[in-house]
Amino acid sequence: MTPRTAHRTTPRSRKVAVVGVALSDCGRVDGATPYTLHAQAARRALADAGLAREVVDGFASAGTGTLAPVEVAEYLGLRPTWVDSTAVGGSTWEVMAAHAADAIAAGHANAVLLAYGSTARADIKAGRRTGDLSFGARGPLQFEVPYGHTLIAKYAMAARRHMIEHGTTIEQLASVAVQARANAALNPDAMFRTPITVDEVLSGPMIADPFTKLHCCIRSDGGAAVLLAAEEYVRDCRTAPVWVLGTGEHVSHAAMSEWPDFTVSPAAVSGRLAFERAGVRAEEMDFAQIYDAFTYMTLVTLEDLGFCGKGEGGAFVEKGRLRVEGGELPVNTDGGGLSAQHPGMRGLFLLVEAVRQLRGEAGARQVRASDGQLPRLGVASGTGGWFCSSGTVVLGR
Q1: Cross-strand partners of 248
Q2: Which residues belong to any copy of the Thiolase C-terminal domain (predicted)?
């Protein structure tokens, strides 16, 4: 199939579908470069869709190279006429998906490939980088860096604020990690699958009070790719379409001192916008894929997306609602960043898992709607920085 150009000036009216998704090799991948993982995921996503590389006229990527996505596009043999390199941390890929959907709907592109790859774990093992991630000391950060609080400490402070204001307990936060691991146990590709208990989470080494090790995401290698296309391409695809129904994005703050409320994440805005634009409500979702670099991120994002009231997240998560097996709202069905894989900016993995669930391709971890059928609606919500940004995408079949 060759690229179609007749629609480049059409009005904003085309429906947009995710037609291909894939992961590269993930977990412990010592013999690859980030470019290799990009290419592996991209080839697999195109094969999943059943479309040729020549169809792709849009490309989005961030996190690799000096001129991302130029370098990655060149490595993949692409010469796109629409590009996006928006980099807002973990929410990058939900924001990029929103931009791509808008561009396709407006006729500025026909098929947009989103791709990511990282060897974060292998680089540390080989001594190519350290375990500490520094965002520098320029701009607004110069006023906080001298106090020495790390990226993890920023999340820990936010969690402690929620505990103080709303009575959230450390056991409730620990239950998020326990349920993520239970879901990972159903995923043969998850990096860690052995069940854990609340007591094991609490007794682990302290990383940043109140977070022990198992409150924090794992470090892995891996890549992912997602292909979005205009509705007229769907008939040529080998997979059933998953439609982009609504998106939202929001940025909150750069400095912690400028964050108005540590208990409210930017998902409160991006989620509201995404649901409104999709014409659906949070309670209609069959599952949620939520960025979970730390247990508190899952809890507060559930509140801000409207799955429970503000301050009610602790009681919501402690009852096992997040599990694939028996949970009312399965969350991070692949095991999430806490157990499955987390090679850096993990937002693209949320979209891959959401699409697989809606297609019914999730194997032992497959979610079912209340009537026993395949899920019809799902949401993926990414968070970036230290709750600095959020992107939310509502998907349906």
Answers
A1: 392
A2: 248-397
